Structure of Alginate lyase:
Amino acid sequence: MHKTRLALSCLLGSLLLSGAVHAAEALVPPKGYYAPVDIRKGEAPACPVVPEPFTGELVFRSKYEGSDAARSTLNEEAEKAFRTKTAPITQIERGVSRMVMRYMEKGRAGDLECTLAWLDAWAEDGALLTTEYNHTGKSMRKWALGSLAGAYLRLKFSSSQPLAAYPEQARRIESWFAKVGDQVIKDWSDLPLKRINNHSYWAAWAVMAAGVATNRRPLFDWAVEQFHIAAGQVDSNGFLPNELKRRQRALAYHNYSLPPLMMVAAFALANGVDLRGDNDGALGRLAGNVLAGVEKPEPFAERAGDEDQDMEDLETDAKFSWLEPYCALYSCSPALRERKAEMGPFKNFRLGGDVTRIFDPAEKSPRSTVGKRD
């Protein structure tokens, strides 16, 4: 009996130690984020004025204002008002993405310093942290977090260690990312299943990027949990019921759901969590259904209860940036890889910039100019 108790005690101690070691492991991104900075001759462009940190209420008009339940009819007046009011947020999203891409490709210190100056200014002013918001406002918050933290990850983890000379700025920026991430979690937690759609998936990507950038495991865990919920929504045929509600835009919104889900899955796998088996392979099933739908949209039209599907969004190659993490997660066919190469390189500022350089660095073409497709 004594020996049995001793053995159990040793086993328990071993398990506890193992758990402690696992808990202490630093969060990491996929290996493409460790790429060194390319160094070239020349000076960086002058640093533009920092966009005014957005510290006001995140209350904006929706571009679908006045639309029916499908939320698919554009209100041009509301969209104009939305774009005007959110201009500083979009400016920093696109600007940081562009500067980080340019820095990683050319290694000019001015681009790095300008990026950090922009992010630090927003961090010091506590931008995007208001608790006064509407649905469109909290949507902008999570999109911005994903864009900024996603781009910052390339600086944080590059083997060239570009942030080593800027510890104070990095500390303030990461502290801000963590605070915004905490608020995004509050914004998008505990929703009824009928209201969980692509917005929640993008929130999961934003929180995942912030969690890895700041090494906050509660953020990582929340993002993984949102993925579990998303995977559970995918039916046996690869459809998302809440995206079918978009009627003529159902296929486009299924496609729009894939970038954040693929990124969360790729980051989870980098940290030893394989989400590809969730709900009997839901992520792969969703991707396969979307790819089939692009070629033959009739099943989407039938399930969405609309004669036609709006294919305009799907004519833009950048909408398929999710193919990069997809082909890193799955064994893509030669035909799909060739198609991906023809459509890329992919740049998506909402995913942190140059997705192709992160997931398929060997796929470089003359088309890979800085700023293209973002």
Summary: Residues 2-24 form the longest helix (23 residues).
